[in-house]
């Protein structure tokens, strides 16, 4: 089956040591370990192809992606500046950028100003928040984030949230805490990276209740317990589930092939691989 694919979570290795930017470093070894952990076949050093911009573009093109989404971050432990994301994606129509902000670290007004600049000046396509990775960790319904949601909704761009088992305190990987946000901002697409895995059933229940909640299980869709994502997508969740490879922590092409083999109905696959993302990102 040949379908256009938008990869909603795809970062080059050179972006940060966390992604394996420095061969021989502990972070590089961790990137290799995580690749093995989530089912990479073949070389666990495959991501070294993207140690340069040219190599990253080649990886994206060789995988047959129509677009790859490069995500910025702004947390106490990792800052991927929005200008860096802009530099990576600028002039490459197959690459799209997401801006990272943190109103706690930056201050509310500075974060709002950065959102305006990232969207209107840098041309990035959405905003990334990571409440559970803050210091102290917070839930997404913390009122400190309310102005960020308001601004994203006013600008008509999606809001991306980090979840999943890498949250330093697993109690902050809680789908229920997004319900108030979804209810208060019904016109704001809330796109959840890692799909709240392993709390899959609760995440699906949240998305069942709120049509503006979108799940990107990315590399965790290949882990135990994730078949529920497939069952839900074949029923009511077909417009709210999106594909992501989590590259460089999993090969792009392998992830597409593995995704196609999970049991999604053929009628829903075009939405999951392309249509839902294109709609949310305004393509």
SSE layout and pairings?
Elements: E1 6-7, H1 26-37, H2 53-62, E2 67-71, E3 73-74, E4 79-80, H3 82-89, E5 95-100, H4 103-106, H5 108-120, E6 127-129, H6 146-155, E7 159-162, H7 179-184, E8 190-193, H8 200-209, E9 213-216, H9 227-233, H10 252-260, H11 269-281
Parallel strand pairs: 1-2, 2-5, 5-6, 6-7, 7-8, 8-9
Antiparallel strand pairs: 3-4
Helix pairs in contact: 5-6
Order of helices and strands: EHHEEEHEHHEHEHEHEHHH
The profile of the biggest β sheet is: 7 strands, parallel
Counting DSSP H or I runs of 4 or more residues, the number of helices is 11
Shape: globular
Tell me how many strands there are: 9
Rounded to an integer in angstroms, the radius of gyration calculated over CA atoms is 17 Å
Widest sheet: strand order?
1-2-5-6-7-8-9
Regions with little confidence, pLDDT below 50 for 5+ residues: none
> What is the terminal separation in angstroms?
23 Å
Structural class: alpha/beta
Percent range for helical residues? 25-40%
Mean pLDDT score? 97
**Strand share of the residues?**
5-15%
